[in-house]
UniProtKB/TrEMBL annotation:
Position of the signal peptide: 1-22
Listed name of the protein: Lipoprotein
PROSITE patterns the UniProt entry points to: PROKAR_LIPOPROTEIN
InterPro entries xrefs: DUF1375
Organism: Pragia fontium
Name of one Pfam family that matches: DUF1375
Record flagged with keyword Lipoprotein: yes
Keyword list, A-Z: Lipoprotein, Signal
Length: 77
């Protein structure tokens, strides 16, 4: 039982922030707030439904990165 929970937690941690990282480096959303959520939803809508699993994790990571994003986005304007 505990091994299944450990595998699930490991799987979720690997997905954690995936949309957030991808949006900042390759997704074209690097100059927007909460870019990981936007990237994950656009990928999920285009046919890869596994990105719906990533949305809550991207929300958490994007919230943590919000001060950094604010400085980066506002300094580029």
């Amino acid at each position: 039982m505990y091994s299944k929970i450990a595998i699930f937690v490991l799987f979720c941690s690997l997905l954690s922030g995936c949309g957030s990282f991808a949006s900042r480096f390759e997704g074209g959303y690097h100059d927007e707030y909460y870019s990981g959520i936007k990237y994950s939803l656009s990928q999920a809508d285009s046919g890869d439904g596994l990105y719906y699993i990533d949305v809550p994790f991207s929300f958490i990571f994007d919230t943590v990165m919000l001060p950094v994003d604010a400085i980066r986005i506002e300094s580029s304007r």
